[in-house]
Amino acid sequence: MSERTNALGAYLRARRELVTPEQAGIPNIGVRRAPGLRREEVAMLAGISADYYLRLERGRDRNPSVQVLEAIARVLHLDDDHFAHLLTLVSESGRKRRRRPRKETVPPGALKLLDSLVQPAFIEGRYFDILASNSLARALDPRLATGGNQLRDMFLEPDQQRLYPQWENVTECFVANLRQSVGNDIEDPRFAELVGELSLASPRFRRLWARHEVRGQRGTPIRLDHPQIGGLTLNRERLSVGGAEDLKLVVHHPDPGSDDADKLALLASVGLPVQTQDGKDAAAPIHEANGAASE
């Protein structure tokens, strides 16, 4: 039974394999054929029968009580984000009906706001597609042009990996954010296409995806090694776009008065070449409207 047909079992198994006997507070006895805890050990520590836990992992029982899930979460060391994800895998009310793919459209008001910002900013979709960006965002990172996908670029493009010195941490966050965003809506064709492509092309993506890490999107500092202005750290904030489900306005901003603020101002003032929406290079001033994205 695959992850697509038994999401609960796949999640429990992946998280069980990440907990060592020492972390669980039990003796490490005998030869272990697989990493992490054995099924019977999870059942014992959670206070449920081994047969019942086996049924959960094999997809034979998909309606455990909240009390059982809380006990299992305690044994598997699940934090709030991971426990919330666990609930989506068993909740009938949380299950999303299969739907035809819908086009993600940025509201006109959000495009006007994007064009007015003096910080690097862009609007991303549910699967980290770039739906619109301003000039300074593209000067900071040329791959933030409309039509790109951050996940694909981050895992498959070497120049993108060089731009982010903390690439390993960044990729961990992206994959955990994707898990949180998707929940149990794994039948979405766009999701299946993207995960399938990255799983085939990137060993690192395969390893991270198999861990079933879940993390909500939160503001965080991010380090970049820009080829023209050197290293700088910017605060990355994701804001919901009103009236557009799953869309986020992402803004990078420096600490006021910092060297990073000076470098960003330099990038904005000198008109460094940026990638336009048609793929050509142009020395665009920072306040220039993102015409292609606004059409």
Describe this structure in a few short sentences.
This protein has 295 residues and is of the alpha+beta class. The protein contains 15 helices and 7 strands. It has helices spanning 7-16, 21-24, 39-46, 50-57, 66-75, 80-90, 108-116, 135-140, 150-156, 158-163, 167-182, 189-201, 203-210, 259-269, 291-294; strands at 121-124, 130-133, 220-226, 230-240, 248-253, 274-275, 281-282.
Q: What labels describe this entry?
A:
295 residues, Beta-Lactamase, elongated, single chain, alpha+beta, 434 Repressor (Amino-terminal Domain), five-stranded antiparallel beta sheet
Description:
The chain is α+β, with helices and mostly antiparallel strands. Among the domains are: 87 residues, lambda repressor-like DNA-binding domains (434 Repressor (Amino-terminal Domain)); 114 residues, Beta-Lactamase (2-Layer Sandwich), CATH 3.30.450.180. Helices cover 44% and strands 12% of the residues. The strands form 2 sheets. Strands 2-1-5-4-3 form a 5-stranded antiparallel sheet. Strands 6-7 form a two-stranded antiparallel sheet. Strand 3 and strand 4 form a beta hairpin. Helix 3 packs across helix 4. The chain is elongated. The N and C termini lie far apart (45 Å). The C terminus is likely disordered.
